[in-house]
Design brief:
about 190 residues; mainly alpha; Tetracycline Repressor, domain 2; 2 domains; 10 helices; about 0% strand
Length: about 190
Amino acid sequence: MVDEPSPRRSDATRAAILEAARRRFAADGFRRATIRAIAADAAIDPSMVMRYYGSKDGLFAAAVDVALDLPDLGAADPDTVGELLVRQFLALWEGPPTGEILLTLLRSAVADDAVIEKIRQVFAGQVTPAVLRFGSPADAARRAGLVVSQLLGLALTRYVLRLPPVVALTPADVVEQIAPTVQRYLAGG
């Protein structure tokens, strides 16, 4: 009879693998990160990674699974929706573990075409339904795309390229500068 790991030990192993994978994917990108390196970072045998996640693709999918938890735009004051989205964006990007997950996605997409679909699923799949609650449904996809372009551009310059003038902005500065543009995109202007 094969001994199965206890649930507590299994959960701890899964958590260690995911934490190591997030760090490794963020640092190396999807293509350069290896199962062996991730296993070494988690201080486990590589076969354990495969046991829990099946493949590098399965591990990546688990490591970058993220919910944006966007506010209900339909219930918000229409004049503050851009501000709400920018504040939520900053909270996600600047807080663990979501910020690390989003950074991993963005860095990997810049270097690896295979990750682009995941970014489409995370952002467009979660942003478009939120945008549908605000403004005309006829052009919601276009408006959601513009919102995402603004926010991913901010993410690229603030968190990946780390451009000093953008990094130096306080969260309040970011909201003040970016929210009106996001608001305009949401309103369809």
